[in-house]
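Subject: for your reference before the review

Hello V.,

The reviewers asked for a structural picture of the protein, and I figured it would be easier to keep everything in one thread rather than splitting it across files. Below is the amino acid sequence we used in the manuscript, unchanged from the supplementary table.
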Amino acid sequence: MGTRLRVTGAHHLPREGGVLVASNHLSNADPIMVTVACLMGGRVPRFFAKAGLWRVPVVRAVMTSGRHIPVHRGKASALEAYRDTVDAALAGDCVVVFPEGAFSDRADEWPMKAKTGLARVALTTGTPVVPLACWGSQHVLPQGARLPRVLPRRRVELLAGPPVDLSDLRSDKPTASQLREATERIMTAVTSLLAEVRGESPPPENVKA
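And here is what came back from the structure prediction:
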């Protein structure tokens, strides 16, 4: 796609066993970029993705062959997607989740408030969560664009960090406060990595004290 892609920290992905990768989300190009990062870490990723992608002719084949996990609207469907993600983690797969659930709608492009589904999977299964920051993909394929911008070549950077320590929150039935705490830790880690890539300080509300 005419990009200069730099991936750092892929060694933080464990080579074996279940792992959850938590990334910020700015563009439809993110899955491609994150896939490259995971492959560099020796893992083939499965994505927790919107069910609408299975209705796109070419994309449908990719999503099906990759055994990605569709997320439908509605409580029952969300529960099914959660169970599929738990099964994938326990089976030793690498599952990528965008905790925000959608593109960031912030003008400054820092992560917005995340959902707690990823934290629930991590706490109930004990699966490690590797934070990942992706920056520059929004310039390659801006939100709403159908085709990528090829020229001039854009730089895209991905930076992975060590697994987030959630050991003290592990529970078969995590409470709402435990889920919020775990989600905050995960997103603080993602935001800190993003700050490093951007060379900027994030807004105070994006960093847990």
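For the response letter, the relevant points are probably these. The longest helix spans residues 176-198. The CA atoms of residues 27 and 143 lie 6 Å apart.

Happy to draft the paragraph if you're swamped.

O.
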